[in-house]
Amino acid sequence: MQIPIFIVDAFTEQLFFGNPAAVCLLEDKLEEDLHQKIATEMNLSETAFVRKLHPTDDFAKSSCFGLRWFTPTNEVPLCGHATLASAAVLFCKKKNINSSLTFVTLSGELNARQAEDHIILDLPLYLTYPQKLKVNTQALLPAEKTGRVKGLILTLKGRFTGKPKGYDFYSRYFAPWNGVPEDPVTGSAHAVLSSYWSQQLGKKEMLAFQCSSRGGELKISLRNDGRVDIGGHAVIVLTGNLTLKSE
């Protein structure tokens, strides 16, 4: 059994920047335990599995697919950058004919649409309850053992001036509880940050930068229906096939 697999740098226009995700296109149903085994083997912050919902579906012609995301240690309910990467593979490598795609996920239906030279994700907008906190990343895991915390966001206000580009706010995201010490660029975290900074800045259109070592840029537009559009570029780095041999 061969599975088409791609590695995509999301939320960047430059190779080896942004957040890398693996994307697997599933023609047939995959044994449940293989999702996690493949994600662990890929050892990226997220591996996405795009699956056909019906036998007659076509990656080049259909507009609705199933989508799941796995870190090296577990499945997660939402991942922005791996959704962007999945859409980029379908639009750019499979030449999908639709201008908008729908993904059926654990977080409901998520839409991704082409907009000029980038892709816009339609994500749920989450309310925020900010906490003032001094962070020691090495102490995060032993400090939180309730299982309620899945990630930690650090953020600060930006200046929309400067060279080559100014940003409304900056952030970093840590998720050692999901096997990701620091995530390079996190679309799902910006579904939270968008709400917070919109209230703080009085703006619905914002430009954000996640300042990990790889770094990535996100274009944000809050909507009036309780959702947020998060736009970004993607660069496909690797194309290949994963061969699964029966034992």
TrEMBL record:
InterPro entries: Phenazine_PhzF-like (IPR003719)
Pfam family membership, one: PhzC-PhzF
SUPFAM superfamilies assigned to the protein according to its UniProt record, in alphabetical order: Diaminopimelate epimerase-like (SSF54506)
Entry GO MF terms: isomerase activity
Keywords assigned by UniProt, alphabetized: Isomerase
Gene Ontology cellular component list: cytoplasm
Residues annotated as catalytic: 46
Phosphoprotein recorded as keyword: no
Family according to the record: Belongs to the PhzF family.
Protein's UniProt name: Phenazine biosynthesis like protein domain containing
Biological source species: Sphenodon punctatus (Tuatara)
Lineage of producing organism: Eukaryota, Metazoa, Chordata, Craniata, Vertebrata
